[in-house]
Amino acid sequence: MAEVQETVDRPAGLGSAEAARRLDEHGRNELPEDPGPTVLGRVAHQLRDPMIMLLCAALVLVVAIGDRADAVIIAAVVVLNTTIGVVQDVRAQRAVDALSRMAAPSAHAWRDGRLVELPAIELVPGDVVRLEAGDVVPGDLLLTDAASVMVDEAAMTGESVPVAREAGDELLSGTVVTRGRGRGEVVRTGASSALGRIAAMVSGRVRPTPLQRRLAALSRQLVLITSALCALVLALAVAQGESWAGAAVLAVSLGVAAVPESLPAVVTIALAFGARRMAQRHAVVRRLPAVETLGSVTVLASDKTGTLTPGVLTVRRVWTPEGECEVTGTAYGVAGDVVGTPTARAGAARLLRDAALCNDASLAGVENDQWRPVGDPFDVALLVAAAKVGVTAGSLAGWVRVAETPFDSALGLARAEHRSVDGTSLEVVKGAPETVLGLVPAGPWVAAARTEVDRMVADGQRVLAVAEGGGWVGLVGVTDPPHPDARGVVERCLAAGIRTVLITGDHPATARAVAEEVGILSAGAGAGRVVEGEAVARGEHIGHVEEIDVYARTRPEQKVGIVDAWQARGAIVAMTGDGVNDAPALRRADIGVAMGGRGTEVARQAADLVLVDDDLGTLVAAVAEGRRIHANIRTFLRYGLAGGLAEVVVLLCGPFLGLGLLLTPAMILWVNMVTHGLPGVAFGGEPLDPVLMERPSPAPSRSILDRALALQVCVAGVVVAASSLVAGLWAESHAADVQTSVFLTLGLGQLAVALALRAPRTRGWHWRERGLELAVLLAGACQLAGVAVPALRSLLGTEAPEAGALLASLLLAAVPGAFVAASQWPARRRGARH
Q1: Catalytic: 303?
Q2: Whole-model pTM?
């Protein structure tokens, strides 16, 4: 604890003994640490997942029959999925850790009548703290003295500009003092502070993604179906004269074949490929399932500041008695102009000169065609606009400030007096229109200015009035304009069936203006479509979320309430944001999307997806990637389950056709490995079908194995089985080996179906889009090797087929692929792959 010199009045503050007592009572001024479950606990939680349990059961089965190759593969998948899950669980803790890093490392407080510097974690309620520009507020404070205090609360409230705070106001921990100085009494610390309350909302287990929920339900279905089939095949084999041991091995083999145990591997690889593609688009995926979740999103809840808008104040309009001018250009860009008639432009130049003189910010130079600003965001916006009309530091060098009154929130204005080199004096006043207009003589221009103020406010602009020497100069309209591509993002989301709502801490008029500009609201929309956070706090939104497009003046817990209300209606919600105040909603949403450029570390850690360059267009690409993955997983299920069904039908129908048991356990496992190996992985990399972004995503309640997909599985499985059984009958009638013919036709027929289920190609013959074809060729070669290589023939129990039998199997194997391709052709022409 170091003493600091203080020349002003010195409040006594707390005594050391009392501070120590309160520290014991309230605890340290830090966020509570949640150690979370142990590593073993996290592993146990992952192993309780139904799909993992299904894989473990399959592992036990293949070990029981001595299939070491499949055992190694399945074990690797179990380990991979469990590891990924544990890593995701550990990551969930980092959001709270990031909140801890926001806390002020030190503070200046009075102890025993002396101003001392002490670690912020030692502050207790009742401490009196000194604040200056640049200080991070170390706890929730009640200001007791304030001199021109301005506080940047954007990270906590979403307000895009610093706000003035006076004695009697409360400051939130984690906010930053940008101007002035003051004193405050600590009222809450640690977990009770604003940061602490947000940390409590951020902590907790991550909500399962739609994909995880759907796969869990599918796993339970497959367990029941497979168990029943294994029992049926066991009974049938015994009835055919097999021993109980032989029948059990056959039933277990069929169980392994019927279960697409490569599904988790396919899903993981598909998600990993998607994450890699997103990284190439400057989007970092923090949780693999999040990629697919975006494809299922039905509601996009978007923050305003830093998301739909860059969070950079920009002068858009200058109004003077000489006329009105529009200011072009973006944010801090050097390019741009002040557009208007020559007379209006001259009036704007005079106003912007005055605003630049009564100004404490500066433009430190140009880098990449952008000004490097220093100072208050509002003052910076005025300097950038002034530079566009030729008013720069160089042109103002002839003026010297001789007196000033810094911005006073009570008065609502700032005042500066300058003198030029020729002795001319100039007094400039800038501030709130209602204050500045009251200082100038009444007249027609003042009445016109009041009307213009109302128009600017209705457009969502913050209005600054400027006067000089008691005479009226004009008005400046400042906005945080939307990203240039924000409207396009909203329109593309709408075309894809995604509803966009705006959630912000800003004023309702500002929120409405931005929402109209980006297309969330239609211009002139009626009342009731914009509500404030207080209505959310009262629960008035719960039954009306579908009628509300914009939420203004919202607090962190209210954003969570909005997300909860949509989820209660079955929506899959994506939340975008960049501030600390967005973190709880980012965590609660089905997928949180954080801005990585100007976003806070807390928001990035709480999110599932981080847009590194803050490009909203990447969000639409991420939605397309998610739909691509969902479609590819469904396609693999259609393919994999159809193959398993075909094997079951062949085994069940063979005895009734007088052919006996047509497959040995080794044959079943070989076909399963060949058809589900490389082709299954390749399905995860299939390209995007453009039609997927021209319609809504599947309903959240829709099972991944719904009625339509189940019907497609049954049709394809029956056709593959029928072709295989015909091959067996042909072989019997031509004295060929029946099991070999069925084995060949069954494996190759499934591979033909894989080719028929390819996604539409958009770039002709491009090797990046030919992974499935290459995988099918390699798998086909492996299947043929099963009857061509002596060692494999001995292992599988096959024979080398004669030319006629081989040709018959090849022709019959092509039938399922041709049938599936023909059956889905009408649907593809209508633009509906699934």
Answers
A1: yes
A2: 0.67
